[in-house]
Amino acid sequence: MSIAFRELLKKVGSGTHTHKDLTREEAADATRMMLLGEATPAQIGAFMIAHRIKRPTGAELAGMLDIYVEMGPKLTYGGESKYTPVVFGIPYDGRSRTAPLGIITALILSAAGIPVILHGGDRTPTKYGISLTEIWHGLGVDWTNLSLEQVQKVFDATGVGFVYTPRLFPLANGLVTYRDQIGKRPPFATLELIWHPYAGEAHLISGFVHPPTEKNIIEALSMRGTPKTFTTVKGLEGSCDLPRDRTAIIGIVRPDMPFERLLLSHNDYGFSNYNVPLNSPEELFDDIHSVLAQKDLELSQSALWNAGFYLWHLGVSEDMNAGLKAAKALIDQGLVGAKLAEIIKAI
């Protein structure tokens, strides 16, 4: 048993009226002890549920992120691009109701010249929704056996990288099992949305569900001062996917500029209020292949809605309408399908 960890656990687990928030340094110490197994399983499980009940602060998330950045894997980018690499923070416990668009978006952005990094593992509690790893598999891409050096080579060659955490960050992946045992998402689930496995300045895009989560994300990243530019998206099931059944709520933080709130309505750009459901993995894989083969499906409309925004937001296109046209052109010209084939060949 770790006496030092027990003292930190006592602070967050002392009850509604007597608990105390951890400092950034204390949160970093607690995270390091959990990752290294210096805290016992009983202590780790108790900390996770107590921290969830107390609710994390921005300073605590900043300290936790300090350790993830310090101890986790990092990619660089050795390819040629005039755009800042983008890291998408997508919930590790996946999707269960709506069709995920993250990989299609990554392929479109990469086809437009923007380097993109995704990260995640296998199906994760408590939701056990379809994971990015599984979707990549369904498209013929297997990242799971690659070393960090091999992922780096693929990223340099194609502009797309995927950090498979069970292999490349096993210390963090070792904490996943506690989620099933406590039956709730711990604050580490928020941490994964803002972890950026990139050694350099990247544009981080984080999904969120609840406004307090967005507030903590902004506080944590602002406190760390890196990345300097980041975006929050109240997306489908906490992802970075813009919804079509409601106004998209987006937060933008840029250096030396005030926080910007952007509201986007699908109606203003001719899209229906329909989110494509996730019926089965096999149907999803077929539909993604059909989108890349220039077939007009509902999933194609969702892909355009998302990619059009990101092409505008990340500086490829001058406005939203131009972004939508650019996304459609990339798909229609076969460049997005070619990007997937390029990744498969590189691996």
Summarize the structure.
This protein has 16 helices and 7 strands. It has helices spanning 3-12, 24-35, 41-54, 58-71, 102-111, 132-138, 148-158, 165-168, 170-173, 177-182, 188-194, 211-224, 281-292, 298-313, 320-332, 335-346, and strands spanning 86-89, 116-120, 160-164, 203-207, 229-233, 248-253, 260-264. The radius of gyration is 20 Å and the shape is globular.
Q: How many individual helices?
A: 16
What is the CATH C-level name of the largest domain?
Answer: Alpha Beta
Shape category? globular
* Overall average residue pLDDT: 97
The count of strands amounts to 7
Helix/strand-derived category reads: alpha/beta
CATH level-3 fold name of the largest domain = Pyrimidine Nucleoside Phosphorylase, Chain A, domain 2
**Architecture of the largest domain in CATH?**
3-Layer(aba) Sandwich
- Calculate the terminal CA-CA distance, rounded to whole Å: 43 Å
Estimate the strand proportion: 5-15%
Unreliable spans are none
Neighbour order of strands in the largest sheet: 3-2-1-4-5-6-7
* Radius of gyration from CA coordinates: 20 Å
Helix coverage percent of residues? 40-55%
Q: Helix-strand pattern, N to C?
A: HHHHEHEHHEHHHHEHEEEHHHH
Number of separate structural domains: 2
